[in-house]
Design brief:
Helix content is about 40%, strand content about 20%.
């Protein structure tokens, strides 16, 4: 039984790499699509914001010393490539999806139009939001908070490599404890790396909870949507 009717899933570009140094690992993206399919089968409306680190990492050396806005636009284009790959993998899995881009590339993907995105969701289509906010200096975390607020999502679900938010880095500190629940103010005050400060503040102001979980734990996404104690819930 789903605890949410409409969700915004934030996927990092790195999540698509698998064990590769950069790029898209086909086996990994197929497994992630399987997790998404299990949630779609519950009748949940799904919006997805995807990052571009897996592709941009490959050209990061070239971007060193580059104008920040130019580098950010390159990163946005990387998210469009990821969104197209994700859409193709979902098509092969029998999932109906649409890609909407904050940058205008109409020969390739649709432009972002809020009303159309909401209609797609109501029709049961999965909507992938690419190119971040369409503006430099803003992260895809902020794009997830923004799109989640715009489409009326009930929760932003952030997929990471770690199974939640911890008191310290669990990789370097074996005594680190996972938070099951934490308030926005506490997360901001303790400078916990949930999302960047802009995204956190926007979600707090919109009373939009964030659930951080590991995309690499089988069935974790479905458990989050069912309202189980999976990962960390950041709330008002």
């Amino acid at each position: 039984m789903a605890a949410y009717k409409r969700i915004l899933l934030k996927l990092s570009g790195e999540a698509l790499m698998g064990d590769d140094a950069y790029g898209i690992n086909r086996e990994t993206i197929s497994r992630i699509v399987g997790e998404i399919a299990s949630v779609a089968a519950m009748g949940v409306e799904i919006g997805i914001v995807i990052g571009g680190g897996n592709i941009f990492r490959g050209v990061a050396g070239t971007a060193t010393g580059m104008d920040r806005a130019t580098a950010d636009y390159m990163g946005m284009l990387a998210t469009v490539m990821n969104a197209m790959a994700l859409q193709d993998a979902m098509r092969q899995a029998g999932l109906n999806s649409r890609v909407q881009s904050a940058l205008n590339i109409e020969q390739v993907v649709e432009p972002y139009i809020r009303g159309k995105a909401i209609r797609y969701l109501e029709e049961g289509k999965i909507v992938v939001f690419a190119a971040g906010t369409g503006n430099p200096f803003f992260t895809t975390d902020t794009a997830a908070a923004l799109r989640g607020s715009e489409i009326g999502a009930e929760v932003v679900i952030k997929a990471t490599k770690v199974d939640g938010v911890y008191t310290a880095d669990p990789v370097t500190n074996p005594n680190a404890q996972r938070y099951a629940r934490i308030s926005f103010d506490e997360a901001i005050g303790k400078n916990l790396k949930v999302m960047d400060a802009t995204a956190l503040a926007l979600c707090r102001d919109q009373k939009l909870p964030i659930n951080v979980f590991s995309i690499f734990r089988p069935g974790a996404l479905k458990r989050v949507v069912e309202g189980c104690d999976e990962g960390t819930l950041v709330h008002c």
